[in-house]
Amino acid sequence: MPCAESMRVQAYFDGEADASSAADLERHIENCAECTALLDDLKKLRAALRQELTYETAPAALRARVMRALDAQRPTKWRPQPFWKGAFSGMAGTAIAAGIAFFLLAPQLTNPLLEDLVTAHVRSLMPDHLIDVVSTDKHTVKPWFAGHADVSPVVADFAEQGYRLIGGRADYFDHQRAAVIVYQHGSHVINVFSWAATKDSVPRDTTRNGYHMAFWRTGDLVYCAVSDTGWDELRRLVRLLQDLGAHDNP
Amino acid sequence: MDDRHHRFEVLVLPHLDAAYRFARWLSRSPYDADDVVQEAILRAFRGFDALRGSDVKAWLLTIVRNCHLTAVRQQQRRAFVPLPEEHDADDGHALIATTPDPESTSMRRDEQRTLDRLMSALPEEHREVLVLREIEEMDYREIAAVTNVPIGTVMSRLARARTALKARWLQEAGREPHAVR
Questions:
Q1: What is the CATH number of the domain that holds A124?
Q2: Are residues A137 and A40 both part of a single domain?
Q3: Which residues 102-131 of chain B have a CB within 8 Å of chain A?
Q4: pLDDT tens-digit map of B120-164
Q5: Do A53 and B112 touch (CB under 8 A)?
Q6: At the topology level of CATH, where does B86-181 sit?
Q7: Cα–Cα distance between B126 and B156 in angstroms, integer?
Q8: Can you give the C-alpha Rg of chain B in angstroms?
């Protein structure tokens, strides 16, 4: 007979419990041998799945096939019959369609900073764009930034916690040469951007085009971690970097 | 390239790898996964205008899943033997381990194969929630949207899937002592 709290312990493990129930559950787990064992099992299973399972990226042949199929979609095929058909035509119709397209995108991409970050993240995922300096050693990555970026962020490998440092990159961004630290987390790439803080406040955490963006500030630098990992997984890396930053800049 | 193609490439295509991974785990066959992904991308392109908000990945994976279900139904109609949900260990191996690997002798590869095989032997509704949660790192709300069930069902399926996978893993560890640490 499993403990009645097992489902909530699972939700806690998955980062779905709010702060107050998380505190309750932590107390419960401390006093319940069964839930302690459950949490341990959940952690082991997750580590195994994220480390040992085969991750495959879309094969190049499939990618090419998809691109050809998209190219074959001529504009006349996809354009839906609009309700105003007949009422407007030619230029006016095009202008309205363009207006609607803009309206659909506008709420997502109003802040140019957020747009730049997502674009930089997506660009980094293209072949050969991810890393300028390939290294799992912070003593290689950090000095490399000195010659290639305007800032010197905290760099560390967190392979044991599931975030493997795979290298660094310089990106021109917000009128300066930003430093980007690249981590591999399971099948996901996490880009950690950093640039010199200006007077503007640090943006709130948000999701754009399916990518989570977590912002924070340490000392004179603003950081932003971008990835399609879960929020919980992204914030865990943020906490590791924040702790490290607090240590470096007391 | 017109504007619509451009927006699609920027917003949707970066999730092609996630779509492929999900299709691979649903169909358990690279050939079927290719077809499912291509169909899903085309459907996504046609339905692109209906996309609201920023949850592009969940939206695309929902389409992948629907394409997979359609493909399975078509195969059944063509009187093929439907893919069994539960099959013996050797079957699972043949279904998933199709790519040759240079490190095939390493122990890590053995563990990987074991886990791949155990995963592919799980019932589909267990496999999909596990992949979405542990590999794609989606939250309950997103998983509920992709699999088209309430959040409570996502939670209970996840719990059952994890219990089932753990049980099989332990069973396997009994047979091959090095397969589990």
A1: 3.30.200.100
A2: no
A3: 108, 111-112, 115-116, 119, 130
A4: 899 999 999 999 999 999 999 999 999 999 999 999 999 999 999
A5: yes
A6: Arc Repressor Mutant, subunit A (1.10.10)
A7: 10
A8: 18
